[in-house]
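Usage

Read records sequentially. Each one opens with the input sequence:
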Amino acid sequence: MKAGLKIGAVVVSFACVANAAEYTFVPTSGGWSDPKSYVDGDGHSPGQTPGADDVVKLSAGTYEVSAPSAGFTALSGIGRISPDNARLVIDAAEGEPCEMGTKFASGQSAGESSKGELVKRGKGTVNLTGKGYEYNSSDWSYICNITVEGGRLALPDPEKNVQRHHGIFAVSNGATLVLS
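and closes with the structure output:
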């Protein structure tokens, strides 16, 4: 009976890893909330927007999303955005703060921070709440450059001995970056 329990645990663990997928964002008129905007390595759409276990690659260029919006909600549900010399611009309107749990990291090393930029625009607030993935005994959420051009951007509370960000911070006059 013990052997059956061990085998069952291995199967469950394997099934969880197998569900993670990697997609490339290919903008359509429906934007971030359109399942057709995401393709796998074979060029097929998953039929739904990627989820919390998935990685979405951004090719070189600038990508924009307004917050709050259906596109921002879809983007916030993705596990990790992996930019390749790409910049993601979040334009947040005044009102209720927007929460974004997506990690934004091109790779798992500090040397890859220059491959992406996260830009916060608008008068609103965006709270980044993403939990990182472990690399070299540290927990990384944002391996990128971060620019705050307006409003307020808050990074997650760091846990003891955990790094959340690696890259360059740039904050425009009148904007706020909160490092909890």
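Summary fields computed downstream for this record:
- The chain has two helices and 18 strands.
- Residues 5 and 169 are 49 Å apart (CA to CA).
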